[in-house]
From TrEMBL:
Coiled coil: none annotated. Keywords: Cytoplasm, Lyase. This is Ethylmalonyl-CoA decarboxylase. It holds the Pfam family ECH_1. It catalyses: (2S)-ethylmalonyl-CoA + H(+) = butanoyl-CoA + CO2; (2R)-ethylmalonyl-CoA + H(+) = butanoyl-CoA + CO2; (S)-methylmalonyl-CoA + H(+) = propanoyl-CoA + CO2. Belongs to the enoyl-CoA hydratase/isomerase family. GO terms for molecular function: methyl/ethyl malonyl-CoA decarboxylase activity. The keyword Cytoplasm applies. InterPro entries: ClpP/crotonase-like_dom_sf (IPR029045), Enoyl-CoA_hyd/isom_CS (IPR018376), Enoyl-CoA_hydra/iso (IPR001753). The keyword Lyase applies.
């Protein structure tokens, strides 16, 4: 199984369930996310949406390099990249608050998924980084657009993307990418976070979310995310990218 969907007590949870692959996203996970979004988008009983990863090692290690490496050209990579950026736009613009419960390492596209959410509640053991540049590509799922849109300070966002480092939870809080750090289990972290949010009626959260979405619509965020996918696709077909991925895959057990 690639994912788990659970909708209970007003909380909809999508869990990427590939712990043996550090919860890397493959086509089945994307289809699962589409199914999840279909279920929650118009569901007025859902007060909060949560995205997380199975196990305690990884939130998500980005795209599944072994599955996606067969895509050699820009034309081959673009459908996958634009499919996921479309899904992340839908995730970002869900009408209720969305929470990335970052239970372990998040790299590459894993950070893009987390950035698409309104909040990032992260384990004190987690690390995260936009490492795409080390693979000689840029973010392909719209994550840079989301970062520039949500995380203001221009030079800080640039460094985050261009230096492509993996940061500790403390550092992620300091640069204001993480909303809150938890210790203990992910369930405890989520419960603590939601206990504050749930003092407010869900309709108020939805109303504030509408204001954010209105801005993103006016700013053509969907189009900019798609353009980001196209830009990544152009880099994808270069030999520099294929060489790094081949090096990673040749190390596998
Ligand atoms: C493609 C979309 C693009 C975007 O648009 O953003 C991206 O997402 S680019 C980024 C792609 N992701 C990566 O480059 C990360 C690759 N993974 C790692 O660097 C490391 O696995 C880790 C995340 C730092 C964790 O390291 P470690 O704790 O040492 O675990 P292992 O490396 O041993 O991983 C266990 C197991 O999982 C496999 N794995 C991990 N990540 C991926 C992945 N992204 N795709 C496919 N498989 C992955 C890894 O190969 C190991 O497998 P086995 O050796 O068979 O056990």
């Amino acid at each position: 199984m690639s994912h788990i969907i659970e909708i209970k007590n007003g909380i909809a949870i999508f869990t990427i369930d590939r712990p043996e692959r550090m919860n890397a996203v493959n086509d089945a996970v994307m289809d699962g996310l589409a199914e999840f979004l279909d279920q929650v988008e118009d569901n007025l009983d859902v007060a909060y949406t949560v995205i997380t990863g199975a196990g305690n090692r990884a939130f998500c290690a980005g795209g599944d390099l072994s599955e996606f490496h067969s895509m050699r050209t820009a034309d081959e990579a673009l459908p996958m990249l634009s499919k996921m950026s479309g899904l992340l736009y839908r995730l970002a613009t869900l009408p209720m608050p969305t929470i990335a419960l970052v239970n372990g390492i998040a790299v590459g596209g894993g950070c893009e998924i987390a950035t698409a959410c309104d909040y990032r509640v992260i384990s004190d053991q987690a690390n995260a980084g936009f490492i795409q540049a080390t693979l000689a590509i840029t973010t392909g799922w719209g994550g840079a657009t989301l970062l520039f849109e949500k995380h203001g300070k221009h030079d800080r966002v640039f460094r985050f993307l261009s230096e492509a480092e993996v940061h500790t939870a403390e550092k992620l809080l300091e640069v204001e990418w993480a909303t809150e750090i938890y210790d203990g289990t992910a369930e405890q972290g989520l419960e603590r976070f939601l206990s504050k949010m749930s003092r407010i009626h869900p309709s108020v959260h939805r109303a504030y979310k509408t204001i954010a979405i209105r801005k993103w619509t006016a700013d053509f965020m969907r189009d900019r995310m798609l353009e980001e996918s196209r830009q990544c696709a152009r880099l994808w077909e270069q030999e520099a990218h294929h060489e790094v991925v081949e090096r990673f895959l040749s190390k596998r057990s």
